[in-house]
């Protein structure tokens, strides 16, 4: 069974996924950061493949992408770092990336490597669902890779049902009209959208991302879904860290605090 | 009769052959769908056409002249006409598209306009039509370009637009486009994004080409009146993203006897590492929502191009041009910075027209292609050189 399915079968609420850009803050930090994220209690690790033009991301993740690229990160390097990571990491690992670097690497080769090293799923924000169905679905399935599509407050009910039908693992629910980035609070309007989707009885669990940054927003998101994804706030927490283990422990400890 | 495979046309998913499509984040899907579903019907409606045609005539100043360049013709030994898009209001062809899109935005009930700009020409053309329609306008422009193109920045501000610097990446056009897309994600309901070239997700490339196609539509009847034939032997236009070329080529795409010459910026030399000749240096990839030729590293990271003209300084080309290149329908020529500057002076001295440096690339292409003495050539004179005075002065070789 795919680790993502297993996770959602065994844990129904307060699932926490942490996004981190691969090769950030330093090139060799990828694995130590993953280990620390797992040790601090996160349920899923979302590893970002850095890209020069990440159009769905806000300044924090953009800067981490630029930094990782300057550090020399590439898909090739990432897979070489990931060889053998399953000896230490047991939580589901998802690669998030824009399509262009993956196409240049070769989509089939990419899928093959994912399977070899033990990656469970993909989030590809600029891969349209129609293109996925036409070109990539069979390939991803062949290599056992799950894919999570995104929905936003603008997504129609019909489209949400299509996303539910074609996603595997979980649906990535974008919290607002926004690019990624830490915001201070969640509005009434957003809660109404969370509730509307929660009442749709979708097949797949949902994780809410974008603007989730601390215990309060995590708890609120968890009220309407199986959990949430934190990216920018985590990147901020480790950007200038002199002790990654300590700072990751502290950050996740704060997010996971009950009250 | 041509088969449909040979025809240059967009399919219903927005592909020209292998290039095009809509590779966009789901957050933009509703906006792009709204446009895709509605634009053609709106543009075809009589009320739209009435307003559009009237603005093209009285506000933009169309039709623009098709001018026989006698002294230029004599110096190159061919019959050369210049399509005077430089005489459009705001100084370049860009305004054809912004007029088209602003009326569309209004009909879609949008209240706010955003746009990207490199040199500032598209930004000025957008700010202009927003002022005309009383719409809120925000222009994204690379921080570096803001410094390089001060007069256009101030023009936009005088017209009431807010100019927001793009501070990410290389701080130029590519990054301004990223910022505009992000801004659209942040306000998908009330905002229309006026893309300035034949790039971006479907339906933008075809929609912008359609608004610019008035160029070749006019060339056809003007040439018929002057020469008794609709088709020249060659049409020459410069290509950055490729909107003026798409407009000049549009009604000739499927006229096989007309040679289409697409002129790219070769910068310091195509293989110098400082160039924007995407047809040579690019490989298939995804940029700003469409599959096209992209200048990129082997890891798929987008490379920052170079050209002396900010309008050609783009690491991709519109998907239609990638297709014209792939099937050999257009000939691609790379013109270097220095040669473009010289051609700008040549046109100034022989015809009394100081061209935009983008356009000067198209003029210089006459030196790099073969043609016959009897050939009828139309060069799309896409913009005037006022905005480039500082670059001409710094170059100084006149």
Write up this protein.
The complex is a heterodimer of chains A (259) and B (398). By secondary structure, chain A is of the alpha/beta class. Chain A contains twelve helices and nine strands. Chain A has helices at residues 3-10, 30-39, 59-70, 75-82, 99-105, 107-117, 129-142, 157-166, 188-198, 215-224, 232-239, 244-256, and strands spanning 15-21, 44-48, 93-96, 121-123, 146-147, 150-151, 171-174, 206-209, 227-230. In chain A, strands 5-4-3-2-1-9-8-7-6 form a nine-stranded parallel β-sheet. In chain A, helix 2 (30-39) runs parallel beside helix 12. The radius of gyration of chain A is 17 Å and the shape is globular. With 398 residues, chain B is an alpha/beta fold. Chain B is built from 16 helices and 14 strands. Chain B has helices spanning 29-44, 46-60, 70-76, 94-107, 121-133, 143-148, 150-158, 173-186, 204-212, 214-227, 243-249, 278-281, 319-326, 337-351, 357-364, 389-395, and strands spanning 15-16, 19-20, 66-68, 79-84, 112-117, 136-142, 162-166, 191-193, 234-238, 259-267, 283-287, 290-294, 330-336, 376-381. In chain B, the strands form four sheets. A six-stranded mixed β-sheet of chain B has the order 3-4-14-9-10-13, sandwiched between helices. In chain B, strands 7-6-5-8 form a four-stranded parallel β-sheet, sandwiched between helices. In chain B, helix 5 packs parallel to helix 7 and helix 10 (214-227) packs across helix 11 (243-249). The longest helix of chain B has 16 residues, at 29-44. The model of chain B has no long low-confidence stretch (mean pLDDT 96). The A-B interface holds A 51-56, 58-59, 62-63, 66, 69, 74-76, 98-105, 125-131, 149-152, 154-156, 159, 163, 174, 177-179 and B 13, 21-27, 29-31, 168-169, 174-175, 178, 181-182, 185-189, 283-289, 294, 296, 298-302.
């Amino acid at each position: 069974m795919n680790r993502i399915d297993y996770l959602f079968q065994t844990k129904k609420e307060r699932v926490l996924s942490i996004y981190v850009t691969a090769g950030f803050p330093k090139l060799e930090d990828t694995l130590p950061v993953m280990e620390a994220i797992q040790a601090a209690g996160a349920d899923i690790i979302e590893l970002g493949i850095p890209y020069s033009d990440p159009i769905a991301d806000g300044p924090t993740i953009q800067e981490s992408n630029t930094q990782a690229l300057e550090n020399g990160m590439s898909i090739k390097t990432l897979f070489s770092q990931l060889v053998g990571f399953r000896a230490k990491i047991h939580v589901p690992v998802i690669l998030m990336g824009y399509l262009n670097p993956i196409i240049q690497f070769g989509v089939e080769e990419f899928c093959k490597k994912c399977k070899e090293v033990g990656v469970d799923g993909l989030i590809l924000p600029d891969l349209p669902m129609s293109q996925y169905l036409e070109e990539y679905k069979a390939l991803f399935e062949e290599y056992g890779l799950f894919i999570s599509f995104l929905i936003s407050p603008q997504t129609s009910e019909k489209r949400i049902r299509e996303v539910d039908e074609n996603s595997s693992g979980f649906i990535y629910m974008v919290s607002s009209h926004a690019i990624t980035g830490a915001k201070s609070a969640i509005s009434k309007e957003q809660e109404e959208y969370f509730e509307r989707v929660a009442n749709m009885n979708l097949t797949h669990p949902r994780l809410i991302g974008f603007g989730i940054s601390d215990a309060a927003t995590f708890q609120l998101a968890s009220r309407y879904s199986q959990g949430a994804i934190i990216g920018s706030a985590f990147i901020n927490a480790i950007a200038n860290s002199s002790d990654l283990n300590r700072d990751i422990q502290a950050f996740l400890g704060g997010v996971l605090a009950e009250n | 009769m041509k088969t449909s495979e040979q025809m240059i046309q967009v399919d219903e998913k927005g592909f020209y052959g292998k290039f095009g499509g809509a590779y966009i984040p789901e957050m933009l899907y509703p906006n792009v769908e709204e446009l895709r579903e509605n634009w053609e019907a709106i543009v075809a409606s009589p009320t739209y056409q009435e307003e559009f045609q009237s603005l093209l005539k009285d506000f933009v100043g169309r039709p623009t002249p098709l001018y026989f360049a006698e002294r230029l013709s004599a110096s190159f030994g061919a019959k050369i006409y210049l399509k005077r898009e430089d005489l459009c209001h705001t100084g370049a062809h860009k305004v054809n598209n912004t007029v088209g899109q602003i009326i569309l935005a209004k009909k879609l009930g949008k209240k706010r306009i955003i746009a990207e700009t490199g040199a500032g020409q598209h930004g000025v053309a957008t700010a202009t039509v927003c002022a005309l329609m009383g719409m809120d306008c925000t222009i994204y422009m690379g921080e570096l370009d803001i410094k390089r193109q001060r007069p256009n920045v101030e023009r936009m501000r005088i017209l009431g637009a807010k100019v927001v610097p793009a501070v990410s990446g290389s701080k130029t056009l590519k990054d301004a486009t990223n910022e505009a897309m992000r801004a659209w994600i942040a306000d998908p309901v009330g905002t229309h994004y006026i893309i300035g070239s034949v790039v971006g997700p479907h339906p933008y490339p075809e929609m912008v080409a359609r608004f610019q196609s008035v160029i070749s539509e006019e060339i056809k009847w003007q040439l018929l009146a002057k020469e008794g034939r609709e088709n020249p032997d060659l049409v020459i236009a410069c290509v950055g993203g490729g909107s003026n070329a798409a407009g000049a080529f549009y009604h000739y795409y499927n006229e096989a006897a007309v040679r289409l010459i697409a002129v790219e910026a070769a910068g310091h030399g195509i293989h110098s590492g400082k160039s924007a000749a995407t047809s040579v240096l690019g490989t298939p990839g995804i940029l700003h929502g469409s599959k096209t030729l992209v200048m990129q590293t082997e890891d798929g990271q987008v490379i920052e191009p170079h050209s002396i003209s900010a309008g050609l300084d783009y690491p991709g080309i519109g998907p239609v041009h990638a297709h014209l290149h792939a099937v050999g329908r257009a000939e691609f020529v790379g013109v270097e910075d220095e040669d473009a500057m010289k051609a700008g002076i040549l046109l100034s001295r022989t015809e009394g027209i100081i061209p935009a440096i983008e356009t000067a690339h198209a003029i210089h292409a006459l030196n790099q292609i073969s043609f016959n003495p009897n050939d009828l050539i139309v060069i799309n004179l896409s913009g005037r050189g006022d905005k480039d005075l500082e670059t001409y002065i710094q170059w100084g070789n006149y």
